[in-house]
């Protein structure tokens, strides 16, 4: 995963380190957190900053296609993430969902839920040093109904845990009560 701007990390760091304690039981599997960045609020700033280049690219693509519905805010863009804190270390793993940057890997027609492979970024701070790496990760996308943004976790869920010994974030997706194998991955905090 190539590195991004260290200046960007300086902007993001305070959002994830201020007044935050250790992540309790990081090895426990937990659902990822979703954010709609189309009309971002103050709490969305770290994610908008992390993905500013991709959000701008997505906005330009909609504009050049003549789609002016999004003159206020951004063209459709959503994000999912997990944050792990421990001592002087903070890791943010984020996956960005836009129409242009993702490919479908699984779908369930009955529930109208799609799983996409999308851009993923790992921002990692250890003391005063920091890195951002890029890759691909899965995004669980519910259907178009406005109230359908968070799928029923008994049927479909994106989840994460932290393997303390391996120093890696583990990711997975369940759709129709089955693991989406293409989405099971381990993201090491340290390059091997």
Structure commentary:
The chain is α+β, with helices and mostly antiparallel strands and 192 residues long. It has one domain (6-188). It has helices spanning 6-17, 45-50, 52-64; strands spanning 30-31, 33-36, 78-86, 89-97, 103-108, 113-126, 129-141, 156-163, 168-175, 178-179, 185-188. The strands form two sheets. Strands 2, 3, 4, 5, 6 and 7 form a six-stranded antiparallel sheet that branches. The longest helix has 13 residues, at 52-64. The chain is globular, with a radius of gyration of 16 Å. It starts with 5 loop residues before the first helix and ends with a strand. The relative contact order is 0.18. Mean pLDDT is 86; it is low at 1-14.
Give a quick precis of the structure.
The protein is an alpha+beta fold and 192 residues long.
Order of helices and strands: HEEHHEEEEEEEEE
SSE-based structural type = alpha+beta
Largest sheet: 6 strands, antiparallel
Rg over CA atoms, rounded to whole Å, is 16 Å
Strand content: 35-45%
End-to-end distance, in Å?
12 Å
Task: Please give the domain count.
Answer: 1
Query: Mean pLDDT, nearest integer?
Result: 86
Q: How much helical structure, as a percent, in the residues?
A: 10-25%
Q: What's the count of strands?
A: 11
Number of helices: 3
What is the general shape? globular
Ranges where pLDDT stays below 50 over 5 or more residues in a row are 1-14
């Amino acid at each position: 995963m190539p590195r991004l701007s260290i200046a960007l990390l300086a902007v993001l760091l305070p959002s994830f380190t201020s007044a935050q304690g250790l992540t309790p039981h990081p090895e426990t599997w937990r659902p990822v957190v979703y954010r709609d960045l189309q009309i971002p609020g103050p709490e969305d700033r770290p994610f908008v900053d992390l993905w500013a280049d991709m959000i701008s690219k997505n906005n330009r693509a909609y504009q050049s296609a003549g789609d002016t519905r999004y003159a206020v805010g951004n063209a459709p863009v959503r994000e999912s993430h997990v944050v792990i804190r421990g001592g002087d270390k903070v890791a943010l793993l984020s996956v960005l969902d836009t129409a242009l940057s993702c490919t479908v890997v699984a779908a369930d027609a009955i529930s109208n839920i799609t799983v996409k492979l999308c851009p993923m970024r790992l921002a990692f701070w250890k003391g005063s040093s920091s890195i951002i790496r890029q890759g691909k990760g899965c995004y669980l996308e519910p259907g178009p109904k406005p109230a359908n943004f968070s799928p029923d976790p008994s049927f479909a869920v994106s989840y994460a845990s932290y393997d303390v010994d391996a120093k890696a974030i583990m990711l997975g997706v369940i759709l129709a009560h089955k693991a989406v194998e293409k989405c099971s991955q381990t993201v090491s905090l340290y390059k091997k």
